[in-house]
Write a structure and sequence with these properties.
With 416 residues, this protein is mainly alpha-helical. It is 81% helix and 0% strand. The longest helix is centred in the middle third of the chain and has 50 residues.
Length: 416
């Protein structure tokens, strides 16, 4: 690990490390590609089926393997050389995107039925869920081996800023690409981005296991990681709060329906709505880079998650594009604060030799909750209708915060 020769209070302290910059660049290309892919697949599936429930099934197809393999993946990450595993994961996404590109061609569409195309999309998304179980937690695990512990909060903020800025560009550009280049052209851009990510990330140095665990059985190793998470109250509380907030507040899953059938704004407006949340988030992350939170982080975490839920309620009932955009934008501002606080808590409290397992549990709580939230949104939209289902999710998010406020006083009082 390289010790940066600079002022540790500088907002740029972590990006002075060349290897860390390579990781940020590669992650930007990777996340942008995935956000474009998620946006495209949601729009594509809705065009093929005209069914909001079909959008929810996309999330379910990915989350089943991602959740099923998450704990095992954490063990594998901790006992493996992380750079090689990371490159395998990104390359796997590249292969899946090439397969989707083939499905989108006019040749495939003219020779195979719509049912075959739909089944092919779901199958490939299922495969990406397997890959995601391993690739998702690696970025968090490898981060702690790149920068000194003293500047981890700064590195986490930059890492989150990179993730969110890539999400903004990915969501918004996907809408424009779909409008101007169609599905095949958009997937071509995604393939190029993933190829670039593989190239840049290949310049990261090898990251061997922090501690040799070869003598441990897999289940013993997994149980050790679970024990750490469930007995570290601040980590468990922060992860649980975000889990339920994302699960119930997953309004983004229904954005294709809002864009086409409620707000009537088409693919370009769809792209802007998809990027609104992340655009707000990246602006807040930039602010937090220069003005980090220094006190009462636990209490602020609860306030911003409650505010996030209120924004989802406003989005649910709005029939005016700019109000819907602002509601999602403000939800992104608040979500960024939540993510930075949670990420800092998890990284600071996790030993190096357990980062893979803890990050995998983190992915089960947080990352997979996006897909579970997408499925929940699809189911509730089918049962209640689109607008009532999204409003219900926002109200449940606020309720979860109220319950957490009284049930987790240690999180509410936490500072770092």
């Amino acid at each position: 690990m390289t010790e940066p020769n600079t002022n540790r209070n500088s907002p740029f302290v972590s990006v002075k490390i060349p290897e860390y910059r390579n990781m940020l660049t590669g992650r930007f290309c990777f996340v942008m590609a995935l956000r474009m892919l998620g946006t495209l697949v949601g729009w594509w599936m809705y065009e093929l089926t005209n069914a909001p429930f079909a959008i929810g099934l996309i999330g379910l197809a990915e989350v089943i393997p991602a959740l099923s393999l998450a704990l095992y993946a954490g063990h594998v990450i901790d006992v493996s050389e992380k750079r090689k595993l990371l490159l395998k994961g990104v390359s796997g996404y590249l292969a899946c995107s090439i397969l989707l590109l083939a499905l989108s061609t006019s040749y495939f569409g003219s020779n195979y039925s719509k049912t075959v195309t739909i089944a092919g999309i779901y199958t490939i998304i299922f495969i990406t869920g397997i890959i995601r179980a391993f690739s998702g937690p690696i970025f968090g695990a490898i981060l702690g081996q790149m920068v000194p512990r003293e500047i981890l909060p700064n590195a986490i903020t930059w890492n989150q800023g990179t993730y969110l800025s890539a999400s903004v560009v990915g969501h918004a550009s996907a809408g424009f690409c779909i409008a101007f280049f169609g599905h095949t052209g958009t997937l071509g851009v995604i393939v190029v981005l993933l190829g670039s990510a593989v190239f840049v990330l290949s310049h990261i140095k090898a990251k061997p296991a922090a501690a040799q665990q070869g003598s441990k059985r897999t289940w013993e190793s997994v149980r050790e990681g679970l024990h750490f998470v469930f007995h570290t109250k601040e980590v468990l509380g922060a992860l649980s709060l975000d889990l339920f907030a994302v699960l119930f507040g997953g309004a983004v899953a229904m954005v294709p329906v809002y864009a086409r059938d409620i707000l009537h704004v088409g693919p370009i407006g769809f792209g802007w709505l998809n990027g609104a949340t992340d655009f707000g988030s990246i602006l807040m992350v930039v602010a937090l880079t220069f003005f980090p939170l220094r006190t009462t982080q636990g209490k602020k975490l609860m306030f911003v998650v409650a505010g996030f839920g209120l924004c989802i309620i406003v989005f649910a009932v709005s029939k005016i594009f700019w109000i819907s955009f602002i509601a999602l934008f403000v939800s992104g501002l608040l979500d960024a604060i939540s993510v930075v606080i949670r990420g800092t808590i998890v990284q600071l409290k996790t030993p190096d030799e357990m980062r893979g397992r803890v990050m995998s549990v983190n992915s089960m709580f947080i990352n997979s909750s996006n897909e579970l939230g997408q499925f929940e949104s699809g189911v509730m939209a089918k049962l209640l209708g689109v607008v009532p289902s999204v409003a219900f999710g926002g109200m449940m998010t606020v309720l979860v915060v109220v319950i957490t406020w009284f049930k987790a006083p240690s999180l509410r009082k936490m500072e770092y």
